[in-house]
Structure formats: structure tokens, C-alpha cells
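User: For a benchmark we're assembling, each entry needs the component sequences followed by a predicted structure for the full assembly. Here are entry 17's components. Please fill in the structure.
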Amino acid sequence: MPAVENTVLICAGGACISAGEKSVKEVFEDTLKKYSLETVVRVVETGCMGACDLGPILVIYPEGVFYQKVNAENAAQIVEEHILKGRVVERLLYKGDTGELKTKPQEELPFFTEQVKIATRNLGVIDPLSIDEYIARDGYFALHKALFEIGPEKVLETLKKSELKGRGGAGFPTWMKWDFTRKAQGDTKYIICNADEGDPGAFMDRAVLEGDPHTIVEAMTIAAYTVGAQKGFVYVRAEYPLAIERLTFAMEKAREYGLLGNNILGTDFSFDLEIRIGAGAFVCGEETALINSIEGKRGIPRVKPPFPANKGLWGKPTLLNNVETYANIPPIIINGGEWFSQYGVEGSKGTKVFALAGNVKNTGLVEVPMGITVRKLIYDIGGGIPGGKRLKSIQTGGPSGGCIPLEHLDTPITYDNLKKLGTIVGSGGMVVMDEDSCMVDVAKYFLEFTVEESCGQCTPCRDGTRRMLEILERITEGEGTMEDLDLLKELGENIMATSLCGLGQTAPQPVLSTMRYFWHEYEAHVLEKKCPAKRCKPLMRVVIDKDKCVGCTACARVCPVNAISGAVRKPHEIDPEICTRCGSCLAVCRFNAISKVSP
Amino acid sequence: MSVVTCPDCENLFAELDRYIDSVKDNTGVLINVLHKAQEIFGYLSEEVQQHVSEKLNVPLSQVYGVVTFYNFFTMKPKGKHQIKVCLGTACYVKGADKIMERLQDELKVPMNQPTADGKFSIHAVRCLGACSMAPVVLIGEDDYYGRVTPDEVSKILDKYRRAE
Amino acid sequence: MAKIKSLEELMKIKENAMKGLKMRDSGKKGKIIVAMGTCGIAAGAKDTLRAIVDSLDEKGIEDVAVVQSGCFGLCDVEPTIEVHLEGADPIIYGHVTPAQAKRIIDQHIVEGKVVGDLIVKKGEL
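Assistant: Structure for entry 17:
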């Protein structure tokens, strides 16, 4: 059998089929036969390539030339020109916004091309259970370099040049933390990895621990060598059992290889790691609370100063970084600080992993240079909003953050810029919300979270957040007053100013931020007793349009509480007293007769 | 003092003791020990807490303090199949609250309380980190269900109902 | 395993493992990587993995290695797998249910034909 020279992918997505893909394929294959090319050219029908408005689409490999709007007539021409004579048929190429010809738009898909993978460099590439594969990707070479070639001073210098900042939320320069701990007095020091990824909506730390556990082992060992520590702890959430399993295995392998434990790489430097499992307390993401938890106590934050760098775990100098921060360390040591700081923008260097979730097409993890605009992240990389809905806002930074509204979509993502907008980069969780999300309800959701997670130690956070939640509950039930809104704001500002730790100091952010950008939604709830997004149950009803209902009974059968009545082939009705507003009927109605209304 | 109703309590306590002996020399292992105890007994009864306190030489008040502080620990028995509904932001935006409601309707129990037959209990959990699959439900330790709709709830439960 | 004490020893492991990653001299025709992060597992990657292994066993295919990896980051199309045959660009498939996994083995591994409708990405990630 002769070797295949070309592979032709024909898009057989629904749109392309309806645009005539089948006849294109037929003509194409017939023409190939005419020139006896059918054995060297393979024609493959693929799934939807996503560019439905350009169909039918045809891509010819190995060059990967992308032809659009192909029809039965010009399909033959493509065979004669491109396959036979090797000439690209220019008039059928995709044209960019400015009319320039693009032969390979698929390789320009931003979801792939915009990414720069540093912290996530090994995810999906290596087997997380194979230390050899980690080594094959330059694993443990950074440790060797630190120990044998450059020494602790140079490690610090490299980190300083890289301008890496803590990726867990606070954004404190990493080299300074390392330097403080190195300079702190004491023979016993500790290294901690904060893997208590508590922000709902962020999952990059889980992905790194599960997909590349050795990078954490290596980075923590480098950190221990640099600051002079002998023992380290990885504090992992109990919700991540797979991460715990893989990290445990990685540690065993590293010990076997002499890369962890006594006499690392044959030197007199010894360091070992232990895993401590969290027990479900969001506040343990705060470094001093986490330290208390490792000590086996209730995870309540300590007063700072003294900072952990001087007085941390069991009163000893302690260095604490989060997973993503550590994952950046080995490549920085190998490639140098300048290599890392070439990415990103002033004040926010390097790359950041973002977790796209919520109402966005391409949910997933993306690592991109800092300074990318929100729009690019959501639309180019994230693929926009599914279901023809409109974007409303992007929530960043979890319960400590706020939202970015439409009008600020072109803001480059940097620590400073997001702070000015009243939110934070945080751990990189980005929850996209469309027009169906009620911003008052979202604020209430986060307050419920913080009320439950407040450790109870200081009054502003313990009592203040509860009072704020009560006000929000009143508002979403249609019982709120304009005075409530003033009180909400005042309370929020007070709690932020007077709470002991980061949790309380940021807890009102989601409320203040939504009040700042979505004031009209608060007003609608208070003044008109209306929920514009039709999400707050007390302020909305589900109704059947009598003119559209054909009485098919589909809704009545699916209603879990039997709130729908009506005879067959007669318009049905929903009893608002019984209805729980679950929306099941909306999903099954094929006549668009059911809708949510807010008075 | 509540009585632990397990057929082979002695063996279970022996298993816990073996674990405690293996880690007792490390400092601050209380939380790890409680994790193990809950894994063995299913929940942390007063009796178990007292036992841990004595074995580790940690005041009972501190043990109780830790047990009540962390969401993960429970002093009440749980159902045989623990249904964990993720209420992280992404899941919330995608309607996890509706899944929660439907589960409670189906099983006719509130959160954190086992069904009459002891088969199920429903728990809310913070982000499981599978946000792209939102809303997510985890049953037991391994059975993840992604992109769950309220109407699928009963079908999912049937699997476990039938398994008996 | 003896403990590593020098750069040379580290290099040696790297070189050997590189071969594995690139599959030269490994005696294998190729490998299938299954993304087994929590998101993948939530979408059913465990069943997919089992179906792949079963299907390979059934057909007596021994020169294709099945390995697991962490999350590819393409959570939207989980479960995802990457088929890496010697001398060809790796292909990433999405939404791979056990049934689709069997199809991929039949068409891609056995017949050498790319399963067009499941492709997410061609080439290195």
C-alpha cells in the first residue's frame, strides 16, 4: 500500500452538512479517482470545527491549509490545483478581519496558541506516577543546579530577577518571603506548601498536584536548601484524595532516588516532607490558621506580626507558598529570572493559571502571560458565552474578590488593575456569569459562605458578616429598604477595616463590588420588588402562556410537586402556592409556553 | 455516654490504636488521627473522642474543639452512601442549589441526616475542584457525577438503591 | 533503585525516559494517554480507561502503552485522551465515552484512520 501523502479533513458538523458537505465529499473523491489519487490521499470526515459560518470547510494536511465555503464546483478545482499541482487555491482561503489570507487559522486558535505553560508545563504530558518522565522533562535538574552550581544566594537573586509573586492570592514577592525566612534566627526552620485550595471556582492547584506532583517536591526541597530548613509539610484539602495519593507516591519515589530525605544527591543536605490533610475549613487558607491546623489545633488565625518567616510553625521560622508558586520555581532556576520576567507586564511578571468556569464555552485551565485582557481571556480563549446569552460579569478571587463588569472587559489583568476595580487576582478562579445570574443573589451566596466559614474569633467577622447576610436575605425576599442598602455598605466597610485576618478583611468585597457595579439590581429588588434576572425565588413566578400551551401534559408529568394541573389538550396552569420554581417544566416544554416572570 | 453500635468495636478500636502507635511520635497529629478514626467508625462518637484523647494524651476539650471546628468531622452517623453536592461558585451558577433541593425531596431528609433506612445522607461540600463539570455530585469517595440536572437525580439514586 | 548522586546519573535517567516519552526503541508502536484528573474522572475517565485496556486486550494489541496523566486543561471536552502513534502527530480526542474509546481503538489504532468527529487537537499541546 502506497504511503498516504495527504490527509483531507472535511468538516461534517451539522452546519457544514446543511451547507452541502456531502456533495463536496463526493465530488472530491470522484476527482481523486479520476487522477488515481485515491490511495495516496485520505479523506476524513471530522466533527464540527466550530467555524460554522465558513462551511463547508476542508483542511488539507500535511500543510494544514484551510479552505472555506467549498462547494461541489470548486471541490474539483482544489484537487486539480492543490493536490495535483501543489498550488494553494487562494480565493477559497479564509480571510482575516483586514482581508489578509490565512492558510492555517486552526493553528491560530487562541485557546491553544495564547497559552504559555510554565507552572502547568507537565500537565497532560507526563505520567504523574513516573519520576523518570518528570526527570526527562528536566525535573530535579533545578535542584541539582541549586545545590552544586549556584548556591542559596544565587537562588534568591534569580527569584528576585524573575519578579515572581505569590500565586495564592496576596501577591507578595516570593523572593522576599524566602529572604526573610533565610535571615531569621534559628536552627530549626520549616517549609510549608499551602495546598488548601479553598476558593470555590479555582482548581489549578489540584491539577498541578494530580498531574505533576514532583514539581512540588522539587521546589520545596530547593526552598528548604535556600532558607536552611530540614522539614516540610504539604497541607492538602481533604476534598482532593487523588492529589494526596499521587503526592504521597511521588514523595516515596523521590526518597528512593535520593532526591528527598537524608543526604540529598549525595550531599550532607537533608530534608523530608510530610502530608497533612485539611478537614474542611476555608479559613485554613490563611497562613497562620493553616499553621495552627498543622499543629493539630483549631484553625484560627494568629495576630500578625510576628510573621511566619520569624515565628511560624511551633514558633520557628517558616516559609509558606502555595502550589502554583512552587510549580514555577524549578523552570525559573533552570532558565533564569530574566526568562520568566520576559512574560507579563510591569508589576505583574510571568504567567498565571486561570480556571475558567461558569457560563463560558471552553471551561478549563489556561496559563497565560499576566497582562492579558479580560476580554481576550473570556472571548478568544474561553470561546465566549454559550446558548446565545449575554455576559453580565466575571467573578474573580472567590469570596475575597469581586466582579468585573462588562464596561471593564478591556482591562489588562494585573494585580494593581484588578485592585483598582475592587476585586483581586486571587488564586485565579474566574467564574463567568451570564444574564441569568442575579448579582444580589451572588453576593448573598458568598456571604453565606463566609458566615459559615468565619472562625468566630473576632467580632466584626463573626457577627458583622451574619448581619450583612440577614440584610441580603431581606432584600432577596422583597423586604429590603433603601436604608438597608446604606447599612450594608457601612457594615461592609467597617468589617474590612477592623477584622483580624484576611478572611474578614475581604469578606464584604463581593457585596461592595456588586453594589458598585450593579446598583440598579439592588434598587430593583428594593424599590420594585423585582429580580431582573428572575433568580430570587420569592420575587419570581413560573407561568404558562395559555395561547401557546397545547396541553401535551409534559410539564405536569415532570413537576416534582404536582403544582401543574389541566386536562389533556387544554391549556395547563401552575399553582404558585405549590410551585417551588425548580424550572423542570421549563426544560421539557417544547412549545416555549412556560416562562419565568418577575412582577 | 453514647454507645457505639458496631458489631466488632473491639477490632475497630484495635485498628485505630495501631494507627495511633505508628504516628504518635510526630507532633500535632490530632487531626490525622481523627481522620483515621472517622474513616474507621464512620463518625466521631463521644466514646471515640474520649479514646483518642486518652491515647494521644490531649485534653478531651481540645479534641472536641477540633472536631466541632472542621466541617469534615461529624459526631452524627452518616448514611451508607454519602451524597456530596458541590456548592462551589461554578456549581452554584450552574444550579447546584436545585440539585440539592431535588435530592432532599427525593430522599425526604434534610442535609446531614441519614435516611430512615440508613442508606443515604446528603451533604453540602465546598468546591470539589471539578468546576468545568459543574454542577458536580460525589457519591462516596469515588463516584463523581458531572453536569447533573435535577431530573437525573432519581436515576442516579436508583443505581445505589438497586445495588442492595 | 540506587540513590542518585551526580548530574551524570540524572542525565542517564533523563535520556532513557526521553526515549519512553518519544517512544523510540521502546518496542511500542505507540501510546494512549488518558487524562485522569478529578475533572476527567468526574466525566467518566475511569470507565474510558477500562474500556481502552479491555479493548486492547481483546484484540491482543500489546505494542500500545496506556498511560495516565494529569489534567490536559481541556476540561470542557472531558474525558480526553491523546493517541500518540510513532511517526505521527499526536491526536487529542474529546468526549471519549467507553463506546467511543472502542471506536478509536478499532479505527485509529487498528486501521490507522483518525476518528475525525472526536478530534479536539492535532499536534503537541
